[in-house]
Structure formats: structure tokens, C-alpha cells
Amino acid sequence: MMSVCWSISVLLAVVVIAAEVILTNGSSKCVARSFGHDSVVCECNSTYCDSVGSASLPPLGGFTSYLSSRAGSRLEVTQGQVQANSSGAGVRLTIVPQQKYQRIRGFGGSMTDAAAINILSLSAAAQDQLLRQYFSGEGIGYSVVRVPMASCDFSTRLYTYADRPGDYGLDNFTLAAEDVNMKIPLLQRAQALSPRRLDLLASAWSAPAWMKTNGALTGKGSLKGRPGGKEHKTWAQYYVRFLEEYAKYNLTFWALTTGNEPSAGRLTNYSFQALGFTPEEQRDWVALDLGPALQASSFPRTHILILDDNRLLLPHWAKVVLNDVHAGKYIHGVAVHWYLDALIPAEISLGATHHLYPEYYLFGTEACAGWSPLDRGVKLGSWARAEQYAHDIMEDLNHYVVGWTDWNLALDHTGGPNWVKNFVDSPVIVDAKRDVFYKQPTFYSLAHFSKFLLEGSQRVGVSASEETRLEYSAFIRPDNSVVLVILNRSPSEIQFEVWDPAVGYISSAAPAHSLITLGWNTS
């Protein structure tokens, strides 16, 4: 009898613990670990990982708040009631739905060789947990995956798909083992987990060395000859062949870029893979080679994004390329990276480009923390980096960008592997020896946008009643619900209220160093 009672007691204890971990909306709590920085990571293993759940909103009259903070909150959920009258406390943020801006395409990260190596270093169950965190319906809503075409610095070796000299017909074009054995299977698994079709985005770092002026994959070099010549036409066909090979695995690409950071291979003696283009060369290559090659292929609807480089090159780069009708007719958007963003205001670069060329969308294709020589590598638990992410995403969104793509989906504790030792940080850091992975504060920073700003959500106006240190951006989703993201980078709590004329007032407060996503229905 005693053993039966003891068993029942243990069972009840397990149920209680489970009830404490699994919240009412299907979310589960972070297992926090500190590594000596200003906040914590959330540890996940083969059997457990915290999750925000389905993140459904309450019926009309209610609202849901999701809070992450330096103090340790991670998408902490609370619910409240919309009020008919103002509380009069703090700054008022008024939703202005008649002011309509761009529609959201999506958010995501990059399936580099390094990311694939790290994911596959875990047990099968832990791999599944990691992929679910990004791509499943219970995860954070990633819908975009950038895929490097052949090697980049986040590879363990230098290679392209056509390394035999003089192969202008690309007769020996072959995907690498890194594609066939690592990236493609993981992309297929991610697609199987995702409730929607993933938008794949292809970017090349370098053409084969025999096509280039410097005869190497690295350093300062561009394509031999001129646009319209045999090297330029072969390089365009290389893109088509890549799309054809991936299509054999039922992986089709929403878009491709004209090449990663073309300024690097033209202006600097880059230490890793690069292919230089001036804006004039890129314009003519698209007009004479890449555009026609794609249109004549089986992938005429695949989007072409120019630049794929830092926004400080805008609007000049866009003017050179998009003012040409022959190039412009093939192009859909402008891809930007976040590096050096502090050197030029978003309105002067992104805003000016949008106002000049509103028919072309702006899309963020690469960002990572830990890239600067002054703040290098992995910092487990850095909230300061989460704030950097949130500030940049919000600034981009408030200046017409339709999506934002992180760099490596996963790295190890050194920030690699990276063959040139260009180590950086990632939202997920893998510890293969312990078969665990850590979700960094940047993971949650991204989640405040990627989980809630569904494809087709439209940015709308927000006006503040007074000067405030809060940063904010508002959206109406396809189902007419409203999402408001608020960042407080200050050391003090800030009281605020939201007024949506369609429903009423929401009173709240943003703790010091916090990120909040508010959501409510309007019908």
C-alpha cells in the first residue's frame, strides 16, 4: 500500500512539474544558463526545449504580450483586456492604420556548410529539436533560408561546382558533398517541419578561379572579359545549373542574388571568397547574361536581387543598375547587409532607395553579431547583441525593408568552423560533446519579429504623443489583427499605453532593456 501511495505521489509530482513547465498556450519555459555575460542562454537537448507555442491571440477585447529582457524573460506571455478609456499614464502610441507601407515577405537564416556541420554534430533527436525551433509551427516562424552556392568562409575548404579549367559548357558541373550530404537533407527536413513553403535564397561568393582575373577564389578579382563575353555567360549559366541540380531534390528557389558583397572583391584584397563587380558591371551582366539566362531557363519566376552588400552603397548602386531599363526589367529587389549600418542613416540609404524605386523591394540578406574586431566571436548570453539585432531589424522595417535574414543558423562555441578563422556569433550555439544547443538572446530578439509578422503583414503608421526612448513598429496582419513591437534599450522602465481607434486602449510598461511584442484582434 505504501509503495502504491509513493508511486501516486511521484506521479502527481511529475504532473505538477509538467504543469509548471507547459503553459496554457502550449509554450514551455527556458532552462536558463549563465556564462558570465549580461544575460542568459536557454539550454536545449534531445528531449526538451522551451517554446513559445502557437502564439494565438485572444478574442476581440483582449490582448497578448510577449516579453523578453536582459533580466531573463524569454517570450514571457501575459494577457490583458483592452480598455475603453485612457489610463493617462506614460507615452501614448497611436496606431494609424490608414498610413500603409510595405508588406512583409519573411525572416530567416542561412544554411552554410558550418551551420549544417554543427546541426549534424548533434544526435538525431537534438537535430530535430533545433530544426523545430526555427521552422515548425511551434517554433519562431522562419520562412526564408539563404543558401550559399558552393563554399564561403563558413566552409572547411575552398571549392566551386565547376573547378575544371576551361569548362565553359559546364560539362563537369557537380554539387559538392556538402550540398548532397548535409545542406540538402537538412533543407528537406526543415521544409517537412514548416507549415508553409520555405523561400530559398541563393547567393554565390565566387566564380571558379579559372573564370577570374586573379586566378583565385579569394582576394581582389572579377570575371575575365566583359559582360556579354564567354566568362560572363558561363557564370550566368552556372546559376541556372545550380537551380536545376537543387530542383532534382524538390528544392526550388524563390530568389537569387547577383553575388555576395561585390564591393569586397573589387575594392579590397579579401582574405576569403569574393567576386568583384562595380555597379556598372553588375548592371550589364544582369542585362546581357543573367537576366536572359534565367528567363530562358525552367526558372523564369525566380527573383533577382542586386547588391547583396552593405546599405552604405545605396542609393548610388541602385541608381546605376535600376536606371537601366534593360537590366531593370529582370530585377525584383535590392538585397542589403547590416555591417557598417551605423555609418549612414537608414533614411539616406534605404529610405532614399525606396522613394526612388518603390517598385523594387528591399530585403535584408545577412547579419551577425560578433563580426567586429572590437567585439569578436561568441558571447553566450549577450543581451547587448540582442538589442543590436532588434534595433537594426526595427530600423530596417521602418524604412521599407520587407524581410531580414540572419547569417549562420548554428555555430559551435568558437563561432565556426570557418576556414579563414572569421569567427562570429549565432542565435544558436551547439555543444556537440554534451549533445545540447544554446538559444542566444539574439534568437529571441529575432523571434519577436519572425514569429508574429506573418507573410503579407503590412506596416502601418504609429505616432507617439511625446518624445520617448522607446523604439516601435506596427503591422496589420492578413487576418486584420495588429502586432506592435516595442524595444526599450534604456536602463529604466518606461510606462506607455497603446491606442488603437478600432478597439481602445492598452496600458503596459516596458522594463529596462526589454523587447515586447503586443498582439490583438480588431474583429
UniProtKB/TrEMBL annotation:
Pathway: Lipid metabolism; Sphingolipid metabolism; Steroid metabolism; cholesterol metabolism. SUPFAM superfamilies: (Trans)glycosidases, Glycosyl hydrolase domain. One of its GO terms (molecular function) is beta-glucosidase activity. It is a peripheral membrane protein. Residues 456-518 form the Glycosyl hydrolase family 30 beta sandwich domain. Residues 1-18 form the signal peptide. GO terms for cellular component: lysosomal membrane. Gene3D superfamilies: Glycosidases. Its EC number is 3.2.1.45. It is found in: Lysosome membrane. GO terms for biological process: autophagy; cholesterol metabolic process; glucosylceramide catabolic process; lysosome organization; negative regulation of macromolecule metabolic process; protein catabolic process; regulation of macroautophagy; regulation of membrane potential. It is an enzyme of class 3 (hydrolase). Keywords: Glycosidase, Hydrolase, Lipid metabolism, Signal, Sphingolipid metabolism. It catalyses: a beta-D-glucosyl-(1<->1')-N-acylsphing-4-enine + cholesterol = cholesteryl 3-beta-D-glucoside + an N-acylsphing-4-enine; 1-(beta-D-galactosyl)-N-dodecanoylsphing-4-enine + cholesterol = cholesteryl 3-beta-D-galactoside + N-dodecanoylsphing-4-enine; beta-D-glucosyl-(1<->1')-N-(15Z-tetracosenoyl)-sphing-4-enine + cholesterol = N-(15Z-tetracosenoyl)-sphing-4-enine + cholesteryl 3-beta-D-glucoside; beta-D-glucosyl-N-(9Z-octadecenoyl)-sphing-4E-enine + cholesterol = N-(9Z-octadecenoyl)-sphing-4-enine + cholesteryl 3-beta-D-glucoside. Residues 104-453 form the Glycosyl hydrolase family 30 TIM-barrel domain. PANTHER family: GLUCOSYLCERAMIDASE, LYSOSOMAL ACID GLUCOSYLCERAMIDASE. Belongs to the glycosyl hydrolase 30 family. This is Glucosylceramidase. It comes from Salarias fasciatus (Jewelled blenny). The lineage of its organism: Eukaryota, Metazoa, Chordata, Craniata, Vertebrata.
